[in-house]
């Protein structure tokens, strides 16, 4: 059983019964999940019917080696809109000594959720109860939610290096296989570009160029049109680099370039 199949099995065992639930729990692409589901069905390890996905006859070796134990970080740190639970506030349905008091009728998000530590992707430094970080994967992002009691924990080690590594992997993937690395800490939001931190990323996207192997110059778009112009200018910078061996990068982070880009870039670079 390959890693994708194992991840799908664990998500279904944790309560994911729909494609969206499995995507949210595993972070895998729809295509990879579909292939894993087909393989699991052929091996009679999973059934798809009108009620969704159901695991059946799973060998013990496929079952998660980790358990939540005393950790209830996801019930405390994460937002769960289905039960009106805001971020970093203990769910009102959690009771000390009892656990979740609505476990049998808990929302689908809770049923399908499995953090990256529980899935076995992280070592025990990342155990959410002590790390103060809940890491989970969605289809297009690594999501990190930080406990209010330690809002800067993610900036320290061993956490930041791992997050930077994930970010670079997501950036280097081609096309729609790429993913973002996002951090939520209290009321603040951050996008990681390797070791470069983008505060308050806009919903319209962030354009960026590498400065070193793991740092970037970035521009936060204020509209889809602005993002398109930024990408066009970046493409021109790359062409000038190939032609002349170098190209200066505009300094400001929030500028709005207007075509034509080449003459201004050549003057800025001393190539005009």
Automatic annotation (TrEMBL):
It comes from the Bacteria. This is YkgJ family cysteine cluster protein. InterPro entries: UPF0153_domain. It comes from Bradyrhizobium diversitatis. PANTHER family: UPF0153 PROTEIN YEIW (PTHR36931).
């Amino acid at each position: 059983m390959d890693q994708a199949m194992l991840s799908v099995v664990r998500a279904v065992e944790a309560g994911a019964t729909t494609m969206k639930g499995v995507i949210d729990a595993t972070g895998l692409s729809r295509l990879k999940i579909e292939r894993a589901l087909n393989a699991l069905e052929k091996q009679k390890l999973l059934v798809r019917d009108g009620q969704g996905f159901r695991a059946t006859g799973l060998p013990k070796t496929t079952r998660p080696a980790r358990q939540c134990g005393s950790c209830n970080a996801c019930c405390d740190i994460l937002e769960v809109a289905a039960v009106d639970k805001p971020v970093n506030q203990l769910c009102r349905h959690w009771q000390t000594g009892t656990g979740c008091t609505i476990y049998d009728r808990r929302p689908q998000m809770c049923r399908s959720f499995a953090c990256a530590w529980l899935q076995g992707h992280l070592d025990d430094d990342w155990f959410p109860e002590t790390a103060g970080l809940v890491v989970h994967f969605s289809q297009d992002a690594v999501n990190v939610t930080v406990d209010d009691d330690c809002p800067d924990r993610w900036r320290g080690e061993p956490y930041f290096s791992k997050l930077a590594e994930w970010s670079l992997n997501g950036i280097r993937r081609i096309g729609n296989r790429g993913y973002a690395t996002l951090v939520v800490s209290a009321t603040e939001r951050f996008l990681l570009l390797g070791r470069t931190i983008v505060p308050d990323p806009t919903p319209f996207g962030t354009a960026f160029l590498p400065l070193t192997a793991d740092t970037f110059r970035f521009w936060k778009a204020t509209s889809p049109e602005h993002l398109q112009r930024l990408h066009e200018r970046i493409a021109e910078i790359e062409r000038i680099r190939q032609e002349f061996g170098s190209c200066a990068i505009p300094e400001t982070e929030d500028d709005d370039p207007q075509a034509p880009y080449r003459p201004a870039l050549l003057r800025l670079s001393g190539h005009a």
